[in-house]
């Protein structure tokens, strides 16, 4: 914990304990304040009482709603109710030592003698004015004082401005791998000059294909492969500052892998501050350079085993629980501070998430759907729609339920959609997210159909196993053609934007 954090915790504990004692003291002071107010009121009246009459002006100066009845003892030692609340039944006022009927719980007796005049006042002990002054205002002042001092602590002990990857000491421990030689050869100490020359000559003649490079790095590749399946800790700076929402917004279901990877690299570079980043996607025994969209050969791949590596850095890609190498993230690192492998890997896992799987693993469905949408748009007076449907709180559902139940739930929702929208194109674009396209239907009717489908809550309580039910709600984004002339990409983009709006507004709605 930082010095600022430790000081804040200590100050908070001390302040809360002190404040608790102070508020208890102020609560006890309510009675004393009421007694003081009562004495001041009696001092106002005592002069008039001695003269035998109480002026109306004196009565108006008394605190309002402060007491129920005021008894005074006359010269014959008889107690008479001098002043009383209009709500009190005067006929029931017989004994000055007895609280007014109906006010037993809220009335408190106050006895006082001033200038030989004896008084008994039944005070309203729950008068809010005293609690507001003694407790509420005091609490608000203490809260303000606490926030002010806390702000001063945070300003005085603010850490120096650091880059995303500071060279200073940090509690975060990055992923590190045991260093291994790129090639497994005999110890040079045991080699003769002739053997050394023979090995060098052999290296010059060797054709380094993608497979031979993989073989040379097989051990560290296996370690990276395991990390794509596991959860690991990331740095707080990355968690708080990385632009995840920009990455999410850059993903479109009709994007090409190259488009999404280029956008993601551009966004991520603002945070990581690496140089010349690129993706190399494996294609047979070669790689596709994403920036130039051309094939290339990688003959020397230096996979990072620590964040202090300088020069060319390669991070292996094993997305979608794939045992085969998909490619590499490449960047140059020449900065003094280190980079964090864990943060880079988390960015990659976020980019190659299940929600983006349809972009990277094409099955032809979306391509065919795009052609069908454009063909429908090319027809005149043919209203059509695109809808994107996403289960709300998908991440929470994934955490709370096992993968088999999630897979079952996904299939059941998909089958229900196909059953309800038989005439339309329905595609499962990622787990718990679906695409529907239809034509020859008015905008109002298409929206009403989805409202009717989504708002049937009983129909969306799915029995995924013998002992487990999962109830879900949906966010739905719909885009309709109307009277416009447009391309299929525009219609899909509008549906995606509307889905994001529906989700951002709390879900369980159609936009």
Describe the structure.
This protein has helices at 3-51, 56-60, 128-156, 193-205, 210-216, 218-227, 236-241, 244-250, 257-272, 341-351, 357-360, 365-378, 394-400, 403-420, 443-454, 488-504; strands at 67-73, 79-84, 107-114, 117-124, 275-283, 286-289, 294-296, 311-317, 327-333, 384-391, 425-430, 433-439, 461-463, 469-471, 474-480, 509-510. The protein is of the alpha+beta class and 511 residues long. It has three domains: 3-129, no CATH class; 205-358, Beta-Lactamase (2-Layer Sandwich), CATH 3.30.450; 363-510, Alpha-Beta Plaits (2-Layer Sandwich), CATH 3.30.70. Strand 3 (107-114) and strand 4 form a beta hairpin. Helix 1 runs antiparallel to helix 3 (128-156). The longest helix is centred in the N-terminal third of the chain and has 49 residues, at 3-51. It starts with a helix and ends with a strand.
